[in-house]
Amino acid sequence: MNPLEFRSDYAHSSEGLSELTRLIYDVFKVDVSPLNRLGHDPSVVAFGWWSNNELVANVSLYKRQLWLMGEQVTAFGVQSVAVRPEWRGKGLFRDLMGRALSYADARVNLIILATDTPSLYRPFGFRQIKETTFSARLIRKQTLPNYRALSLDEDKDVALLQNIFSRRAPTSLVASACDHPALFMLKVAKTSEIELLHLLDLDAVVVVIDRDGPSMTLLDIIAPSIPSLEDIVSALGYAGEEVDVRVTPDRLSWAPEKQIPVNNGYMVRGFFAPEAQAFMLSNMRI
Asked: Sorted alphabetically, which Pfam families does this protein's record hold (predicted)?
């Protein structure tokens, strides 16, 4: 094997993006190339080991703008953790995590990640946090829907979405994020059942699934002023029996009937103020 070179200068170069895209696809079979059109997050910092011109191991950080218990908090998220199979067992993951965490610790007090293998991250001081889903039955009302479905294949819809993101208010003051939309866009691009719906009178975009069934799931709200859940349901003309909300609902002028603890894979390192509360961070991420 060729000697390795450590680099942290490639997150936004064409060479670096191409190699990181290839690494993520080879390891996870996830294609992140749609971000070349939809927009990469400029806050990303990448740490990697290279063999000649090939990226063989990577850990990336990206800036997170969170609202936690009424306070605006800047944190770092960890993403794109990958090592090519032939380079595993050589300490590259441990080395890159150490470098990334040293960088983050010098700048913020909270680091957050999502994983289905928490045992990998506990040795670095991460702990799992439980989230909560919120739901209630609906009282049916006669309403006139006023919305338009958006498509990421349409440039005008992408521009509209980016504009609303630039003016976005936090969905919750207890626990929510106002991050760059890159991971949101990728989640939509990769999840066929997701609907992006522009509520014209509310200057809002909502993300829903199962809108034609008896229970609709609300995944996220992007708006400069968060509308009530009743106004959202009315604008959609939703005639089902129940709504399942996957954001912390303190700004929705709504009281859930059921709260169910769930494990969405989030882990934190540092002080996380709403840890003892019922909360849900948006799952609009890959």
From this structure: Acetyltransf_9
